[in-house]
């Protein structure tokens, strides 16, 4: 019995000693900088954000009310042998509960990633950030050849033929098939509609799950996540269910106007995909973390320089079916 008593005393001694150890939950930030810029292939407007870490009394980061963003930096992207300089500007905040000064950002409106000659090939892009103190941050990526990206079937209909319970979407790169393994994909299908209530029309959309599981109490809906998968198979019943959902709060179907049923794939290059995966894993409700991994592809600092592109198709909706259900439509 004495052995167990001694063992418990030793265990409690270790626990007490551990509780008395001082733990420094902060890190040195005196010469660190944070930069974010995500290139969107669907627009010529590109924004960047530059800031410096801050310290607070205690451990509550929201105690800081001084905007940590940095002005007067020189940001230049070199793409296709052309330099694109970002302008320094501010934008009025809609939420001033924490920071009362305008939001600070950098932007460029001339870098066109939508041009067919540019968007049909993967091209290198580099960025250089020169801070007011002459410290330099750099990064690089390769653009996404979205013009070469296609769906393997171009005609999708809803409701589908009576002998088809599933609608399967597949995608590929047309002339550079090997590129399909280079990127990550986030697919989703949406029903777009408007609802008229009290003389006011509101534009709305609803995401459609690709799978549901009954928990014993209710159906739990699952939506696609970022992955390397190049197809999505969807039970058509989930689309029928989406139509039922939109009028659950208003049984008068004529108050609804159906605009479109779309399938979209977001393509992410490896840096953005890695950042997305790390953030999603750290923040998901099933995980317990004491520290998040710092993902960065910024040389000389922290942050992200990434890129994404989107491809969307519209499913062919049956006007006869919509009319038979009591819906209006405007396509």
Please describe the topology of this protein.
Blueprint: H1 2-20, E1 34-40, E2 46-51, E3 74-79, E4 82-85, E5 87-91, E6 103-108, H2 116-119, E7 124-130, E8 136-142, E9 149-151, E10 157-158, E11 166-173, E12 184-197, E13 200-208, E14 211-214, E15 219-222, E16 231-235, H3 236-246, E17 256-268, H4 270-283, E18 302-314, E19 316-317, H5 319-325, E20 328-329
Parallel strand pairs: 1-18, 10-19, 17-20
Antiparallel strand pairs: 1-2, 2-6, 3-4, 3-7, 5-6, 7-8, 9-11, 11-16, 12-13, 12-17, 14-15, 17-18
Name some characteristics of this structure:
disordered N terminus; alpha+beta; 17% helix; four-stranded antiparallel β-sheet
Summed up:
The protein has 331 residues and is α+β, with helices and mostly antiparallel strands. The chain has five helices and 20 strands. Mean pLDDT is 85; it is low at 1-19 and 281-292.
Q: Would you write up a description of this structure?
A:
By secondary structure, the protein is of the alpha+beta class. It folds into 2 domains: 34-143, Immunoglobulin-like (Sandwich); 148-268 and 311-329, no CATH class. It is built from 5 helices and 20 strands. The protein has helices at residues 2-20, 116-119, 236-246, 270-283, 319-325, and strands at 34-40, 46-51, 74-79, 82-85, 87-91, 103-108, 124-130, 136-142, 149-151, 157-158, 166-173, 184-197, 200-208, 211-214, 219-222, 231-235, 256-268, 302-314, 316-317, 328-329. Strands 1, 2, 5, 6, 12, 13, 17, 18 and 20 form a 9-stranded mixed beta sheet that branches. A 4-stranded antiparallel beta sheet has the order 4-3-7-8, with no helix packed on it. A 3-stranded antiparallel beta sheet has the order 9-11-16. Strand 1 and strand 2 (46-51) form a beta hairpin.
């Amino acid at each position: 019995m004495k052995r167990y008593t001694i063992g418990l005393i030793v265990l409690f001694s270790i626990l007490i000693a551990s509780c008395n150890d001082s733990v420094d939950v902060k890190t040195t930030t005196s010469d660190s900088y944070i930069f974010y810029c995500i290139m969107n292939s669907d627009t010529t407007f590109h924004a960047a954000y530059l800031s410096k870490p801050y310290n607070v009394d205690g451990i509550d980061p929201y105690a800081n009310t001084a905007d940590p963003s940095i002005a007067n930096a020189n940001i230049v992207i070199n793409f296709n042998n052309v330099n694109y300089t970002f302008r320094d500007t501010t934008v009025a905040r809609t939420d001033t509960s924490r920071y009362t000064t305008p939001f600070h950002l950098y932007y460029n409106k001339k870098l066109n990633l939508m041009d067919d000659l540019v968007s049909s090939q993967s091209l290198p892009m580099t960025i250089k950030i020169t801070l007011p103190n002459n410290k330099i941050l750099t990064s690089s990526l390769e653009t996404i050849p979205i013009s070469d990206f296609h769906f393997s079937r171009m005609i999708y209909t809803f409701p589908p033929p009576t002998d088809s319970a599933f609608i399967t979407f597949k995608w590929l790169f047309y002339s550079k098939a090997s590129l399909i393994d280079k990127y990550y994909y986030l697919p989703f299908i949406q029903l777009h509609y408007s609802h008229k209530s009290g003389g006011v029309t509101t534009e709305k959309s609803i995401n459609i799950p690709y799978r549901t599981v009954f928990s014993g109490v209710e159906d739990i809906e699952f939506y696609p996540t970022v992955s390397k998968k190049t197809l999505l198979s969807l039970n058509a019943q989930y689309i029928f269910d989406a139509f039922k959902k939109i009028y659950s709060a208003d049984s008068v179907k004529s108050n609804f106007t159906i605009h479109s049923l779309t399938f979209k794939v977001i393509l992410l290059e490896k840096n953005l995909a890695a950042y997305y995966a790390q953030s999603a894993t750290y923040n998901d409700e099933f995980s317990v973390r004491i520290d998040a991994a710092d993902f960065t592809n910024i040389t000389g600092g922290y942050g992200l320089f990434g890129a994404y592109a989107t491809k969307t198709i519209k499913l062919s909706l049956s006007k006869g079916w919509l009319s038979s259900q009591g819906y209006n439509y405007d396509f």
